[in-house]
């Protein structure tokens, strides 16, 4: 007697096979690879890239002339796993510290070494001008790098990149007086923008969580600098920058506001911009161009809360922490008049246009000494 079609449909073997196939299909669709994402898989030290086309986050070592070069690897990065949180150490978030460097200061390098953030999660990037002073700085930097990277494991950084600046240097003198002349600002800051962009685009990797821009003059800071800034979990955040100097009237060391690039915009500044030509820029801190912006340099409160935040429209670059996603979205340092702003101030404007907000810490002081002097950060 022939089996009916309805009975064949409910055959236990058929149902079993269908169930196994269904489970297998669902497992294939929703399962994740057993190997962790490169952003989470960290070792005490990075591997050496086998090929120059390997991921930018790995250092590349050239092979000898008689060695056969291995093909570049194919690596898949799950960008959703690259976090930026208020607990960067707990979440093993990688930090890229970038420094435009015209002169080398031993104190700056010593300061990097004493940062308490795990060095295996820190990559360094430098861009140095191609001139006599830059050659000297490069030689000094390479000596320290060699000593550090061959020393104790805990002091070594994940990777270090040195770029030699390929753009024209507008100012041959790096004296503080020459650097801050108003007539030199547009050319100087345009060159700085190009250097920053070259350094950023060359060094940022798919596993980078945060980018810390740090001036080469900062030679003393709290060991917890990175954690302090990241704990606010803001897209762009900057401390207040002061300068230590000898006050002849007091016959003692004193402090004064230094970085005027962190500010809240004003209607007067906006009116000035409306009357400017397309290529003209607004500058802060010059009596010839009074903008009446609210400068974070003057928001400091004696014994004030160092965690106090203010929303900013412009930022300076002495110690500037940026979520890597802000840069990945396209926020860079304009070397041209962008809404009549340039370099770090233009960066804040560009980040804002992309939907990212900048913040400042008026009571977290970054002391920036005269060139050649000591800088310190007070918390």
UniProtKB/TrEMBL annotation:
Subcellular locations according to the entry: Golgi apparatus membrane
Keywords: Golgi apparatus, Membrane, Signal-anchor, Transmembrane, Transmembrane helix
GO cellular component: mannan polymerase complex
GO-annotated biological processes: cell wall mannoprotein biosynthetic process; protein N-linked glycosylation
Residue spans crossing the bilayer: 12-30
Gene Ontology molecular function: alpha-1,6-mannosyltransferase activity
Membrane topology listed for this record: Single-pass type II membrane protein
InterPro entries, sorted: Mannan_Polymerase_Subunit (IPR052086), Nucleotide-diphossugar_trans (IPR029044)
Gene3D superfamilies per record: Spore Coat Polysaccharide Biosynthesis Protein SpsA, Chain A (3.90.550.10)
Family classification: Belongs to the ANP1/MMN9/VAN1 family.
Record-given protein name: Alpha-1,6 mannosyltransferase subunit
Species this protein is from: Eremomyces bilateralis CBS 781.70
Phylogenetic classification of the source organism: Eukaryota, Fungi, Dikarya, Ascomycota, Pezizomycotina
């Amino acid at each position: 007697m022939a089996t009916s079609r309805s009975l064949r449909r409910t055959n236990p073997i058929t149902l079993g096979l269908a169930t196994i196939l269904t489970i297998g299909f669902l497992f294939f669709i929703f399962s994740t690879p057993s190997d962790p994402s490169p952003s989470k898989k960290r070792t005490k030290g990075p591997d050496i890239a086998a090929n120059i086309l390997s991921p930018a986050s790995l250092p590349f070592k050239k092979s000898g002339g008689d060695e056969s070069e291995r093909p570049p690897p194919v690596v898949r990065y799950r960008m959703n796993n690259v976090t930026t949180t208020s607990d960067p150490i707990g979440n093993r978030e990688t930090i890229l510290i970038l420094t435009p460097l015209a002169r080398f200061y031993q104190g700056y390098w010593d300061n990097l070494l004493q940062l308490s953030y795990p060095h295996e999660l820190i990559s360094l990037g430098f861009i140095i001008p191609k001139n006599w002073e830059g050659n000297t700085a490069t030689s000094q930097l390479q000596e320290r790098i060699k000593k550090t990277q061959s020393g104790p494991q805990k002091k070594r950084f994940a990777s270090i990149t040195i770029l030699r600046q390929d753009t024209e240097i507008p100012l041959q003198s790096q004296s503080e007086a020459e650097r801050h002349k108003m007539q030199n600002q547009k050319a100087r800051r345009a060159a700085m923008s190009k250097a920053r962009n070259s350094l950023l685009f060359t060094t940022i990797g798919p596993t980078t969580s945060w980018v810390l821009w740090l001036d080469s003059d900062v030679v003393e800071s709290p060991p917890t600098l990175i954690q302090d800034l990241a704990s606010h979990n803001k897209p762009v955040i900057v401390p207040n920058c002061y300068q230590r100097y000898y006050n002849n009237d007091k016959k003692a060391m004193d402090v004064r506001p230094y970085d005027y690039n962190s500010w809240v915009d004003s209607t007067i500044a906006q009116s000035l911009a409306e009357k400017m030509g397309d290529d003209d820029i607004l500058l802060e801190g010059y009596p010839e161009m009074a903008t009446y912006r609210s400068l974070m340099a003057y928001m400091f409160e004696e014994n004030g809360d160092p965690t106090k935040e203010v929303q900013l429209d412009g930022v300076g670059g002495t110690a500037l922490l940026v979520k890597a996603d802000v840069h990945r979205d396209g926020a860079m340092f304009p070397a041209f008049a962008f809404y009549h702003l340039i370099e770090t101030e233009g960066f804040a404007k560009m980040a804002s246009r992309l939907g990212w907000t900048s913040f400042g810490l008026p009571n977290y002081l970054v002391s920036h000494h005269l060139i050649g002097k000591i800088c310190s950060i007070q918390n």
